[in-house]
Amino acid sequence: MQPVINPKYPGLAVRVADQGFAAYIWGSDFSFEVRAYASAQLDTPVAAWPLHPITPYRKCYGIDPEEFASFHNAVDSAIFMAFLDDQPVGHIVVSTNWNGFAHIDELAVHAPARRHGVAKALLDVAQFWSRKKKLPGIMLETQNNNLGACRLYERCGYVIGGIDHLRYRGIDPQTAEVALFWYRLFADPLEPPISPPASPRLVP
């Protein structure tokens, strides 16, 4: 796949992950600040969810590049990296799930590079990959304390298909984290576009 650029951010490009993927992972900061837990509700905009403010803390999910070693150059999965001014700043891992949907196994952006369209560009590439494979849509999971991610998915046309209050209770019986399952459904998955979406676009 050729490099992909975002016309709104000319220094931003997305391409298939290369041999520098592991070094980029170990050298990046994927943490985010948690200020509240939301009471997510179906068919309700994220902005209208009731919030339960807490003492702010930073949360970081441990990311192991070896976990996705088999995803490179596979038939039913792919890893894409985002570059901002030629520096790796984000990645997305996408695969074909057992239920026929594309599944975003991981989406992360280096903290200093956020608000530059990186996550949106990665989601656009995942959507193009999914439609090219004639899949009916994309699904992913996030949590009710990652409100920035929830707002992003909502802006990108995702809707909540399920809310699981018990998913993390085995790890911590007192946790307030709730799993949110987001879906981006394609109107006509049997006729994928013959070219990528307008943003990002392929470099000639």
From TrEMBL:
Keywords, alphabetical: Acyltransferase, Transferase
GO molecular function, one term: acyltransferase activity, transferring groups other than amino-acyl groups
Protein name according to UniProt: GNAT family N-acetyltransferase
Keyword Repressor (UniProt): no
UniProt feature coiled coil, ranges: none
Record InterPro entries: Acyl_CoA_acyltransferase (IPR016181), GNAT_dom (IPR000182), N-term/lysine_N-AcTrnsfr (IPR051556), Streptothricin_AcTrfase (IPR008125)
Alphabetical list of Pfam families matching this protein: Acetyltransf_1 (PF00583)
